[in-house]
């Protein structure tokens, strides 16, 4: 039995252990040593989720692979938001702005953090980061429309007080955002799939897997691991189904363990004197860790289009799937649901869309563009701490 366990890969063992730990800790007050174990298991489950999502992506190909991971991460986000809202944020506090803060943080981290990091590392390694402006532009436009519809308009409507939608307005926003997301997925996976595939430096869809340096020559020694990974045979149907099951197990573990750790996250935020809205930033950073790792790895392989699919796809799913779910959950949840952004947040969103547009149009980016997006992310995090 012990020998058999030793032969199992860690990506199989860790999700199962996370689920077992969840069963013993969920709904209980956990001491610090156990909390450390929870944190370690949560990180392990996130990394295992990345692995299994990439196995599935290798089987189904792009852009389906990035879509699988984006939807999986959004499932984590929705689960965390709903459980925290049901429990009153862990301390019975006000959770009316939790969904807004978490969704907006996910949008900023995805559209500036994941995208900026991918552009920066790819441009530094390969001189220029290249991608398809048609597919990426469509994704950015959808993100901008969803963010405006669900997060900006509630600040200006007059049917309800404050930054809230009325019931009818919330229902309209939920249906419209879900429809836009489904329409984009149809465009990405069926109608214009070729716009979302990696391209070479001449703008042609990449059919090979060989990576090149800035001078056009392949770096055989430095990239053997990456090329080997891309040349590997696709997993079998049985392996793909096993990874799909383990991905679900890992995601359940992440959602549950994050819920177990959420009171400690809120205590830590309170202890250092940060605003309660920063809890949403922490949650978003946590759930977007799988996408960040996957996007960086693809950027290093000069597959920037995959990285941008992950970044903008996550931002899109965060709004297009979370808001409808929260709208339905609000039927049973007590208290208001504030979705309208604050003026500072609206400014950051507008600037992010403007910079993103100027980045996307040429279809290639220098390290400067990556740095601009990362600077906007840094401004968002800093202003979340010191508004």
Automatic annotation (TrEMBL):
Q: Keyword Transport, does the record have it? A: no
TM ranges? 7-26, 32-52, 64-84, 104-124, 136-156, 168-186, 241-260, 272-289, 310-333, 345-361, 368-385
Where do Basic and acidic residues bias regions lie? 206-215
Quote the InterPro entries the UniProt record gives: Alkaline_pH_Ca-Antiporter (IPR052946), NaCa_Exmemb (IPR004837)
Q: Where in the cell is it found?
A: Membrane
Mark out the compositionally biased spans (Acidic residues): 216-227
Report the protein name in the record.
Answer: Ca2+:H+ antiporter
Which species is this UniProt entry from? Answer: Jatrophihabitans endophyticus
């Amino acid at each position: 039995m012990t020998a058999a366990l030793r032969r199992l890969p860690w990506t199989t063992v860790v999700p199962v252990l996370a689920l077992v730990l969840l069963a013993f800790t969920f709904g209980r007050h956990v001491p610090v040593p156990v909390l450390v174990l929870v944190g370690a298991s949560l990180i392990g489950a996130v990394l295992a989720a990345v692995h299994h999502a990439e196995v599935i992506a290798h089987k189904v190909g792009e852009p389906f692979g990035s879509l699988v991971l984006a939807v999986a991460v959004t499932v984590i986000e929705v689960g965390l938001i709903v459980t925290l809202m049901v429990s009153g944020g862990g301390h019975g506090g006000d959770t009316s702005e939790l969904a807004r803060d978490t969704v907006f943080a996910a949008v900023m981290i995805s559209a500036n953090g994941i995208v900026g990091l991918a552009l920066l590392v790819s441009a530094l390694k390969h001189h220029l980061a290249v991608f398809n402006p048609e597919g990426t532009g469509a994704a950015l436009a959808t993100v901008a429309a969803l963010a405006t519809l669900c997060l900006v308009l509630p600040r200006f409507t007059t049917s309800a007080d404050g930054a809230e939608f009325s019931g009818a307005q919330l229902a309209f926003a939920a249906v419209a955002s879900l429809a836009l997301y489904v329409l984009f997925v149809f465009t990405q996976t069926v109608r214009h799939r070729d716009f979302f595939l990696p391209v070479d430096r001449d703008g042609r869809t990449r059919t090979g897997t060989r990576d090149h340096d800035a001078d056009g020559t392949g770096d055989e020694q430095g990239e053997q691991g990456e090329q080997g990974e891309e040349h590997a045979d696709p997993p079998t149907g049985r392996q793909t189904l096993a990874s799909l099951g383990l991905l679900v197990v890992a995601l359940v573990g992440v959602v549950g363990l994050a819920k177990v750790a959420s009171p400690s996250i809120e205590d830590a935020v309170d202890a250092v004197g940060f605003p309660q809205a920063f809890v949403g930033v922490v949650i978003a950073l946590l759930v977007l860790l799988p996408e960040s790792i996957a996007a960086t790895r693809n950027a290093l392989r000069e597959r920037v289009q995959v990285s941008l699919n992950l970044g903008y796809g996550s931002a899109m799913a965060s709004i297009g799937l979370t808001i409808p779910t929260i709208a339905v959950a609000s039927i049973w949840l007590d208290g208001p649901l504030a979705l309208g952004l604050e003026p500072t947040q609206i400014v950051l969103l507008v600037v992010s869309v403007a910079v993103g547009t100027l980045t996307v149009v040429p279809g290639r980016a220098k390290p400067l563009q990556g740095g601009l997006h990362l600077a906007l992310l840094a401004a968002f995090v800093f202003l979340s701490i010191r508004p």
